[in-house]
Amino acid sequence: MDPKRNRSATCLKMHTLIFSNRSANYFQCRKWEDSLKDAEQVIRIRPDWPKGYFRKAEALMQLGRIDEALDSYHIAKRKDPRNPQIPLRIAKALILADNNSMGLTVYELTPGKDICTSKSITSPIQNKMIDLAVKMKNLIYIIIDNESRKCVVVDACWDIDGILKFIKNKRLELVGAIVTHYHFDHAGGSLPPPFDHIPMKISGLFNLLKRRPKVKAYIHPKDIPYVFKANPGMAEVMPVDKSSHTASEDDDFPMMSAAKFLNSITSNRESQSTTMDHLNSSIFPLGIPKTLARSPILDPTLDSLTEQNSRVHNRRSSISEPTPSSNASIHIPHSLSSLFSPSSSQNTPRIIPTPHNFVLTLGSLTLLRFLHMPGHTEGSQSILVNECRLFTGDTLMCGCVGRVDMPGGNLKDMRKTLRDRLGNLNDGIVVYPGHDYGGDWTTIGIEREKGIIGEFRR
Length: 458
What we know:
Layout: H1 3-28, H2 32-45, H3 50-62, H4 66-79, H5 85-101, E1 104-109, H6 124-136, E2 140-145, E3 150-154, H7 160-169, E4 173-178, H8 184-187, E5 189-190, E6 201-202, H9 205-211, E7 216-219, H10 224-230, H11 234-237, H12 256-266, H13 270-280, H14 302-315, E8 351-353, E9 358-362, E10 366-372, E11 381-385, E12 389-393, H15 411-422, E13 430-433, E14 442-443, H16 444-449, H17 452-457
Parallel strand pairs: 3-4, 4-7, 7-8, 12-13
Antiparallel strand pairs: 1-2, 2-3, 5-6, 9-10, 10-11, 11-12, 13-14
Helix pairs in contact: 1-2, 1-3, 2-3, 3-4, 4-5, 5-13
């Protein structure tokens, strides 16, 4: 080979590496436009190199230009068909595009990345809390109805100031806080035994409700007493809704108007079904990636769950159950409109019990249905948005379920949840878990084929 041509080729590669690495650094610093410019420069210099298209797609995703990002991802996939990360990115982009098509936006906040990012040399306890938050890998979600700009937050915890700042910067109206279960890393409050000797209280739901007097909290009735126990004084200043009507576990939607609203949504969901079929087949021609079917932290098998459950039953005699507050009489309201009625009374309910199939409308395009899924705790619940997006807390994650060897955990309930609740849902439903333990999303279909749902039903 001509030495001059060889030096020229080497120089060309060095230039593309420099721009590619700088694009990645800009991306980490959240300078999306700069990251995009360097990625485009990589493509101009080496149009045959897939990494330039990948970098471009990543930046475009952050800028909200999803269709353009998909084009770049597909080019990168054609040039590097065996890269396992590209199909995952395409699948995530398809999910976001489908969310947009139904007027829905979901933001995912991660401690150490989006919140809990500032340490202080004058606050060692705060620094320890940030370290713990990053280690726990919680995922906090903001669910938005695009038309009204109203939103709810799911499992607001660790950094309420950061969460509220994010919502304000996005110019959203926060109208509700949803709790999937009462554990401190999802609802905040005092640390449970054996960590209760540590002088640390996790910022969470109580802090949020005090900061936003018009916001209501949505908690399953069986977990409300535990939330109150972890937050002394909360029961006295945050009244629970006390209506005369209760809902049973087998009730259909509590309101006919909600069912009609749901029909108007599902009648327009043909695109969702097509998108998810595409996601599970052509996007993964070599099979579902292992990253969506592994359980690196929690035990995924029911045999291990049996062992966990036997340990907790052996300890139950030493576990003190919380005494429900006198304010915690559990009922469901007659109508959703009453939940948002303006009132100056101090007795205005702030805590809304959410029995199985409780329905909440968010704006005019978004419907949330609360599904009781006991097992991890007695009052664990998942939120099914527009019948196609499921926020599961610790009930279901990528390839695993939440632990049952803690107070309130129950193997029998978890089995029933897997069989009768999760096992009967549609394969195309996208799952947003409460922790990034092996992935920040999955689908019911993936979990049925490769995960804990399929393992249980086989």
